[in-house]
Specification:
By secondary structure, this protein is of the alpha+beta class. It contains ten helices and 14 strands. The strands form four sheets. A five-stranded antiparallel β-sheet has the order 1-2-3-7-4, with helices on one face. A five-stranded antiparallel β-sheet has the order 9-8-10-14-11. The protein has a two-stranded antiparallel ribbon with strand order 5-6.
Length: about 350
């Protein structure tokens, strides 16, 4: 199995399976002298963790990071950074029948056909548990971006969960504090209804899809390598690599197909472009929407196991991490080109 490495300059290779001893990441080409923020790393992992709310998976993992190399006296060394978290609450017995009876909607059968020999416990490497390594990597990318572009922020929230969607008025008030105050990252007056919906879904073995929004505030301008590594192309690839994603939009997205050109291109600086023109960042805010299908674990599989009835809330820090990775990669790429 290949393709476990992401990035062109800032390269990350993730490893581990859902029920293996540990999951981790090796980061190559991170420059020396980057301040290593352990609190930021722990905070991002805590936001992704299962078991923190009744409406998400109840698998109880502490996700405490062991830093094996690449960091000394609170700074990066420029050598490979290796980190891992150990699995502590796997229930492998829940998956004893998967090898002979693949779960509907999962990748059990296609992985078996492709690779021949696979780890069926918890989905192995196809599990959402794999994303803990992405958040570790994305946290280091965030530290790097903080050094070269301290004004840049990445903000993510649940825009829609099942039938409930944040209205434009509430959306205009969204900030990090409001998002963090919402257990499901759904900062809306409808949040109690969403919690009730997902709690009931767990009991019934139901699941829901939803939409996540990511806003990159004050990104560096001039990021992007046309023609095959346009910034929008790398962002889309990064986001679509996350499990359960069904689509991604940048700026006006699908709505642009019904626009009139004289309205759409009325001015050079336009939020309709989503902060990217010609595949290169303009310095304006970059807006992204990601659509998620309903979680694959339904009916008896969901009732017997520990699964998220909607993946969107816990996917937010993963999406943010992938965006940080792309930005960090392109910042280093731009510096190398000079």
């Amino acid at each position: 199995m290949s393709a476990n490495t992401f990035g062109e300059v800032f390269k990350v290779t993730t490893f581990g399976e859902s029920h293996g001893p540990a999951l981790g990441v090796v980061i190559d080409s991170c420059p020396a002298g980057i301040s290593f923020d352990s609190d930021l790393l722990a905070g991002n992992l805590r936001r992704r963790r299962p078991g923190v709310h009744a409406s998400v998976s109840q698998r109880n993992e502490k996700d405490e990071v062991e830093i094996l190399s690449g960091v000394y006296q609170g700074m990066t060394l420029g050598t490979p950074i290796a980190m891992m978290v150990r699995n502590q609450d796997a229930r492998s017995q829940d998956y004893k029948d998967v090898e002979i009876s693949p779960r509907i909607g999962h990748a059990d059968d296609v992985w078996k056909r492709k690779f021949g020999h696979v780890d069926p416990r918890g989905g192995g490497r196809a599990s959402g548990r794999e994303t803990v390594a992405r958040v570790m990597a994305g946290s280091v990318a965030q530290m790097l971006v903080k050094k070269y572009s301290p004004q840049t922020q990445v903000l993510g929230w649940s825009q829609q969960i099942g039938p409930y969607e944040i209205n434009p008025e509430e959306k205009s008030l969204i900030n990090q504090k409001r998002i963090d105050e919402s257990p499901l990252r759904f900062p809306s007056s409808l949040s109690n209804k969403v919690e009730a919906l997902l709690t009931e879904a767990i009991q019934k073995g139901e699941s829901y899809g939803g939409t996540a929004e990511i806003l990159v505030q004050s990104p560096p301008p001039n990021l992007g390598q046309p023609v095959f590594h346009k910034l929008k192309a790398d962002l889309a690839a990064a986001i679509m690599s996350v499990g359960a994603t069904a689509g991604v939009e940048i700026g006006s997205g699908a709505n642009s197909s019904s626009q009139v050109g004289t309205d759409f291109h009325e001015q050079m600086e336009s939020p309709l472009y989503g902060g990217i023109r010609g595949g290169i960042s303009t310095g304006e805010n970059i807006s992204l929407r990601t659509y998620f299908k309903p979680t694959s674990s339904i009916k008896d599989v969901a009732k017997k196991g520990r699964h998220d009835p909607c993946i969107v809330p816990r996917a937010i820090p993963v999406l943010e991490s992938m965006v940080w990775l792309v930005i960090a990669d392109h910042i280093l790429w731009q510096r190398k080109d000079r």
